[in-house]
């Protein structure tokens, strides 16, 4: 993901192009492609619909799948592919599954050319912008899959086997569902119980306790926090639920809806001030602004910092470093309480679907792509995923009989403690460029590096949000 050198303008332009911010010509081709040709062009013929084949998959047709090669790897998908071939042996030798970290640069030419894969795990730093894909009519509505019988219980639709909120996450203001989030991610402040025990401490449930613990750690030569400064859009994984805890979930709803002055809410200022204090008091690991996600996680896993904002994939992504410390005992904490006037209780956390899968509208074998997803949402495949990558899936339940690793067990406990106090910001789904490059790199990263004050960061972010709201070329969504 790059070196540890400081972020510069050339990096911004390159990454903005990768995210489609400055790639106007490419987006123009995508737009033209969306309107041209017939949906039936190059499509394989449907198969015969039956109880065993409810999506009418062509049993001998090829299948082209592209997986993001990130923290979850691709073995779980390859295992599901094996189950697909058991169901459709005539497709043997015709199923292609490839993986890459460069989703956008690898697949945009294929989307532009009208020959996209049949199923895509659209994730990672080069994730294609969902808002653009939906607006340009590039995706297949997955309602057919959701209304199909589930693998484990034919009397239950796939949609009825999913965790609450997963279907809604894939919708963009209508009844159509464009995205199926396969993983179920718990975001928050990740830490080692073992490293806290060395300081005779437990996870700080109040911000005063957080600052006191960071001060204690600093005296021992350990930083309180680190984060991936090259990808500072990781900061919201703990910052956004912190804002909601302080001011209520309504604050995040206004932010998602691009409402005027939403970022000027007192809860945002209070949360920004608190995080900025970590920088001002020297509680952030030196050099963090120059680290990518893997480098910051490595430093944290090696005990150079106590806390890191992250998602539940971190257990798998940092497994090798964590394994070197048998006493590590990974856990996730909800945002600490700022004061007694917080609107939501301690335990409020961000949890939502992750690892977004899409079936392109011009896929040759859309039915096959959806069938592979249906297989992945079986209990067998879900448990295989959980065992391999230490993450929950969107299948509601599915953990029966499994011994969960420490981080995942902690995430389960956090979800139980949160109860109904689970927030799910949509900014990162609806406005990828705004969230990652503008809010993340352009403001939060600058603030945590000490180059912007909280007031300056808020002013900048509000302008970014206003510009996005006023940009007629950007489709808007509401919750």
TrEMBL record:
Gene3D superfamilies: Periplasmic binding protein-like II (3.40.190.10). One of its GO terms (cellular component) is cell envelope. Its main location: other. It is found in: Cell envelope. Keywords: Signal, Transport. Pfam families: SBP_bac_1. Residues 1-34 form the signal peptide. Belongs to the bacterial solute-binding protein 1 family. This is ABC transporter substrate-binding protein. It comes from Streptomyces lydicamycinicus.
């Amino acid at each position: 993901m790059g070196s540890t050198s400081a972020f510069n303008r050339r990096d911004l332009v390159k990454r903005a192009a990768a995210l489609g911010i400055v790639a106007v010509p490419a987006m123009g081709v995508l737009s033209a492609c969306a309107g041209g040709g017939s949906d039936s062009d190059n499509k394989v013929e449907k198969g015969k619909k039956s109880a065993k084949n409810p999506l009418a998959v062509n049993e001998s047709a090829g299948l082209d799948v592209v997986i993001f090669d990130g923290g979850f790897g691709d073995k779980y998908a390859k295992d599901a592919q094996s189950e697909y071939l058991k169901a459709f042996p005539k497709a043997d030798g015709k199923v292609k599954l490839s993986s890459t970290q460069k989703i956008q640069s690898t697949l945009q030419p294929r989307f532009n050319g009208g020959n996209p894969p049949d199923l895509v795990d659209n994730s990672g730093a080069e994730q294609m912008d969902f808002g653009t894909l939906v607006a340009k009519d590039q995706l297949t509505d997955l309602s057919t899959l959701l209304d199909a019988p589930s693998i484990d219980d034919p009397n239950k639709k796939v949609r009825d086997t999913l965790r609450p909120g997963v279907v809604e996450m894939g919708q963009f203001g209508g009844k159509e569902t464009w995205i199926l989030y396969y993983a179920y991610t718990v975001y928050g402040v990740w830490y080692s119980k073992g490293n806290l025990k060395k300081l005779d401490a437990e996870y700080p449930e109040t911000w005063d306790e957080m600052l006191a613990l960071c001060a204690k750690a600093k005296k021992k030569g350990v930083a309180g926090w680190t984060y991936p400064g090259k990808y500072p859009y990781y900061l919201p994984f703990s910052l956004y639920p912190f804002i909601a805890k302080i001011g209520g979930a309504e604050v995040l709803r206004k932010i998602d809806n691009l409402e005027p002055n939403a970022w000027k809410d007192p809860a945002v200022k209070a949360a920004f001030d608190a995080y900025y204090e970590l920088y001002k008091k020297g509680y952030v690991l030196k050099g963090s602004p120059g680290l990518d996600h893997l480098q910051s996680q490595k430093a944290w896993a090696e005990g150079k910092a106590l806390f890191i904002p992250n998602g539940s994939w971190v257990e798998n992504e940092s497994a090798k470093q964590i394994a070197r410390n048998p006493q590590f005992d990974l856990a996730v904490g909800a945002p600490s309480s700022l004061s007694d006037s917080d609107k939501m209780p301690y335990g409020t956390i961000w949890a939502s679907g992750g690892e977004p899968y899409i079936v392109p509208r011009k896929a040759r074998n859309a039915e096959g792509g959806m069938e592979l997803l249906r297989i992945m949402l079986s209990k067998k495949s879900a448990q295989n995923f959980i065992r391999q990558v230490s993450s929950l899936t969107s299948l509601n339940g599915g953990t029966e009989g499994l011994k969960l690793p420490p981080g995942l067990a902690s995430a389960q406990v956090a979800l139980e403690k949160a109860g109904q106090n689970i927030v799910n910001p949509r900014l990162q789904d609806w406005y990828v460029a705004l969230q990652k490059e503008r809010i993340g790199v352009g403001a939060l990263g600058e603030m945590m590096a000490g180059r912007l004050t909280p007031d300056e960061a808020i002013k900048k972010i509000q302008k970014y949000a206003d510009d996005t709201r006023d940009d007629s070329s950007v489709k808007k969504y509401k919750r």
